[in-house]
Design goal:
190 residues, nine-stranded antiparallel β-sheet, globular
């Protein structure tokens, strides 16, 4: 589920109230609409772009919110902070920088709530069937139909996304990770 919410900041808390449903993808979705405002005739693939979603819409007291697990009993709502994309031949890789605003294992009112004080940053990856040619959006800009078996990252796209993550969350790539024992023999670790 994607939706627009009205934001009210009072007493150090932010209240979200559902305003209307919305589309992230598609020719009339938020991404295509925002890109339509920034591309120029000289823009043709491959290239990267960034949309400062929260920066733009929070000024008007709106937030674009994604329900990460809409069919689950767990509530997992995130505000789209920024969208980073890389247009290729007929399709576009997109990474969403999200702020976790409501997570609960018990039922809650998703239509009207006070968001979490500590808004953890997480990322989500999608791709859309659309691109930009000579400043024009081409394709459906829809999520692919059917199962997605792989999401290729050409080197220039991976470089672009790593630059964006370093810019907005420089410590994110320095976090400690764990590798289970059975995989050590394949990774070359001893």
């Amino acid at each position: 589920m994607y939706a627009w919410y009205t934001r009210k900041d009072e007493n150090g808390q932010t209240q979200f109230e559902l305003t209307s449903g919305a589309a992230l993808a598609g020719c009339k979705g938020m991404i295509a609409n925002e890109l339509g405002e920034i591309v120029t005739a000289k823009d043709t693939r491959p290239f990267g772009w960034t949309i400062p979603v929260a920066e733009k819409w929070n000024k008007q007291n709106y937030s674009f919110v994604i329900d990460i697990r809409p069919n689950s009993s767990e509530t997992f709502l995130c505000e789209v902070d920024r969208a980073f994309g890389y247009c290729l031949d007929g399709w576009t890789l997109v990474i969403l920088r999200l702020k976790l605003i409501l997570k609960a294992s018990e039922p809650v009112d998703k239509r009207n709530f006070i968001c979490a004080e500590n808004r953890e940053i997480i990322y989500s990856i999608i791709y859309l069937e659309g691109s930009i040619e000579n400043g024009q959006l081409v394709g459906t800009w829809s999520l692919p139909n059917g199962p997605m078996t792989a999401l290729p990252f050409p080197p220039q796209a991976m470089t672009f996304f790593m630059e964006q993550v370093r810019k907005w969350d420089p410590d994110l790539l320095d976090r400690e990770t764990q590798l289970i024992e059975s995989w050590r023999k394949y990774s070359g670790e001893r």
